[in-house]
Amino acid sequence: DAGVIQSPRHEVTEMGQEVTLRCKPISGHDYLFWYRQTMMRGLELLIYFNNNVPIDDSGMPEDRFSAKMPNASFSTLKIQPSEPRDSAVYFCASSLIGGLKEAQYFGPGTRLLVL
Amino acid sequence: AQTVTQSQPEMSVQEAETVTLSCTYDTSENNYYLFWYKQPPSRQMILVIRQEAYKQQNATENRFSVNFQKAAKSFSLKISDSQLGDTAMYFCAFAALDSNYQLIWGAGTKLIIKP
Fold it and tell me: Which residues contact residue A25 at a Cβ distance below 8 angstroms, ignoring those fewer than 6 apart?
């Protein structure tokens, strides 16, 4: 299996622009997680999906952030409008049903820089 | 509130030595999972090892093993015969069984393996 795939790997944009991050989970995994990692706040869970349905989005920082999972093999995290404080590494992770027992498998991350 | 503490911000050892990274956690839960993740310079998060709290036997994965002390709420990671490729940030994470899969992360320990 190719593992969790994220694109783009790097994104540089200007404040106010829309940013879309993409994730393809491991085939057969029922859970998908979006994380943000910064030096100041460490690794934060933003939202997670079970069978394409958002279960907990309490970690989404603001209304500027939205996430979708239109099918089992694709998810997006969108920031509109982006701000410099959104600069971070964004990880997507997936796991099998019974997620904790199987742990979460992370993608390579998207390094976002908002100027 | 559940917390995870990694008291060693940075460690450095010679190649082939054994190194132990410490992790303590605080919880009132009885059923939970503990994880060690590795984040090399590539920034990808890689699962190293997992321990279920109800299992008394310490988990082992090749050169990686844990010392799980449930009463002391301690979960240290031992790396034997360390290799240059072990250089990375190591994160300890906790998740209660009914936590909605939310991992609680430690701040990380930067491990440097010197040739």
Answer: A4, A32, A72, A73, A75, A92, A94
